[in-house]
Amino acid sequence: MEETIHITVEDQHGEVRQLEIPDGINLSLMEVLKASEYPILATCGGMALCATCHVQVLAGQEKLEPRTEAELDMLDTLPDADDHSRLSCQIRLTASLDGLKIRVSGNN
Q1: Could you list the residue range(s) of the whole structural domain that residue 74 is in?
Q2: What's the CATH code of the domain at 63?
Q3: How far apart are CA 3 and CA 85, in angstroms?
Q4: Which of 3, 9, 88, 97 has the highest Cβ tally under 10 A?
């Protein structure tokens, strides 16, 4: 039986919604957020070159792969980035991310 990945998303206005994503969908978090009509620009198409898919991880950061040098370099360009900042294009959705909680940055 296929598992479902549950991700809680808070938008820039404080509205909270839970997304249910089928495991094995082979998409990035950025692609799912765009498809769910969140204001993610992703002007570079998911190549970690623009930081317009910035999110804050509110819970579950320990479940994520470490940030790459390219991701860290782009996060350094953001004035509001902190230790909980990630580029959603660099987060591949897997069953291990079930329960992840994020906030979509208001400046995307």
Answers
A1: 4-104
A2: 3.10.20.30
A3: 27
A4: 88
Query: In whole angstroms, how far apart are CA 47 and each of 30, 81, 91?
Result: 11, 18, 12
Helix (H, G, I), strand (E, B) or coil at 54: strand
Residues 6+ apart with CB under 8 A from 101: 7, 8, 9, 10, 57, 58, 59, 60
Query: Residue 96 — φ and ψ, nearest 5°?
Result: -65, -15
| Structure confidence by residue, pLDDT tens digits, 23-79 | 889 999 999 999 999 999 999 999 999 999 999 999 999 999 999 999 999 999 999
Q: How far apart are CA 108 and CA 39, in angstroms?
A: 7
Which helix (H) or strand (E) segment holds residue 104: the answer is strand 101-104
pTM here is 0.92
